[in-house]
Amino acid sequence: MAKASSSDQLKSKGNEYFSKGDYKNAIIMYSDAIQLNPSNSILYSNRAFAYIKCEDYLYAEHDCNKAIELDTKFAKAYYRRGLARKNLGRFRSALQDFEEAKKLSPNNLDIQKEIEQTVKILNSKQPIRLKPIMIQDKNLQSKMPLIDIPIQIDSDQSMNIDNDGDDQQIEKQLENHIRKLIPEQKPRNFIEFDQFWRELSRSDMKQQYLSIISIDNYRKIFEYPFESSLLFDVLDQLSQLSNQSLVYEILDKAIVQMPRFDLCFSFLSENEYRILKELFTNLIKNLNCDQKPDVIKLAKKFNLIL
Question: Which segments cross the bilayer (predicted)?
Answer without folding.
Answer: none
